[in-house]
Amino acid sequence: MKKGNTNTNSGEETNFFERVYEVARCIPHGRVTSYGAIAKYLGAARSARMVGWAMNACDGREDVPAHRVVNRKGVLTGKHHFEGTNLMQQLLESEGVEVVDNQIQQFENLFWDPTEEL
Fold first, then answer.
1. Distance between CA atoms of residues 19 and 5, nearest Å
2. Which domains does the chain have, with CATH numbers?
3. Can you tell me the distance from the alpha carbon of 13 to that of 8, in angstroms, rounded to the nearest whole number?
């Protein structure tokens, strides 16, 4: 995976989304990362919202573990984009991640930072 600056305002949205998906595919089973951490890794630190849009747009892509991407505090802010009301939580819990009131427990211990790992 190669780092690099991405200008998300120049019509390269599809390319940016694909780069987000490449990073998301690297998140290990039972670990989570944040929208901001992915954006920072891609050289677009202020584009966390675009990472969120990419995660929302990957609906139906089983090769992208979007359930492993949460907000910077470990809250399941994207859960409403999954089928059913608790699918995101169920997917995380099936990987051994404890979630209480939409908050990942021991978030700091489960956090996977692409800047350090890739």
1. 11
2. 13-110 (1.10.10.10)
3. 6
Per-residue tens of pLDDT for the chain, all 118 residues: 545 444 444 456 779 999 999 999 999 999 999 999 999 999 999 999 999 999 999 987 899 999 999 999 999 999 988 988 899 999 999 999 999 999 999 999 999 999 999 9
Q: Which two tokens stand for residue 71?
A: 């907000």
Residues in the chain: 118
**What's the chain look like in SS3?**
CCCCCCCCCCCCHHHHHHHHHHHHHHCCCCCEEEHHHHHHHCCCCCCHHHHHHHHHHCCCCCCCCHHHEECCCCECCCHHHCCCCCHHHHHHHHCCCCEECCEECCHHHHECCHHHHC
Q: Look at the block and give the residue holding tokens 């849009």.
A: 53
Q: Can you read off the two tokens belonging to residue 25?
A: 């595919």
The pTM of this model reads 0.88
Structure-token match 């891609």, residue found: 42
